[in-house]
Amino acid sequence: MAFFLIFDNQVYSLSMKKLTVIFVLLALGACKIIDDIVDIERIDGPCTILLTDGSTIVTNESLELSVRTQAITYRDDDGKLWSLFKGEYQSYTCGN
User: Fold this and answer.
1) Which of 17, 55, 58, 75 is the most buried (most CB within 10 A)?
2) Quick one: pLDDT band at residue 55, thresholds 50, 70, 90?
3) φ/ψ of residue 79, rounded to 5
4) Out of 17-26, 28-37, 48-57, 78-87, least confident range
5) What is the CATH number of the domain that holds 57?
6) Is 54 in the same domain as 80?
7) Residues 25 and 60 in one domain
């Protein structure tokens, strides 16, 4: 069984083997995208972040934590987006 693909006004014949290879490559690419999405953990606010210099940041919004890099992303009261990397904070606590 053969499948035909028309691209740029040319007809290409694709065998089942070629289609399987293309499908597998697309599936692997989708897995990478899903891994990147799953890497982010959302933590409901309000939250307090203790910085390495001893000061704190309080946000009423949720935090997003990258599991892989441990970077924290949050929004301030004006809605501006900020990121802190692991070396910039000591800990965080969230919840009411």
Assistant:
1) 75
2) very high
3) 90, 5
4) 28-37
5) 2.30.30.100
6) yes
7) no
85 has a pLDDT exceeding 70: yes
The total of structural domains in the chain comes to 2
What is the model's pTM?
Answer: 0.61
Residue owning tokens 């690419």:
29
What does each C-alpha distance from 23 to 14, 19, 33, 50 come to in angstroms? Answer: 12, 6, 15, 47
Q: What is the span of the domain harbouring residue 31? A: 2-38
CA distance 90 to 93: 11
DSSP secondary structure letter of residue 81: E
The closest alpha carbon to 40, from 70, 73, 65, 62, belongs to 65
